[in-house]
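Q: Convert this sequence to structure tokens.
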Amino acid sequence: MYGGFMKKLSVKLNQTQWFILLWLAGFLALGVIAGLFKVILIYAAPYLK
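A:
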């Protein structure tokens, strides 16, 4: 089911849309990683001193 959905999606999207989609996905991933890193640093700070 999931594979078929991805195949249908890739047919609908053109190159420009894929680029935008991948760029947004990368940006979101970076935001999530940065947020997690910040939280880890806040909690780890007392132990690092």
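The first helix runs from residue 2 to 12.
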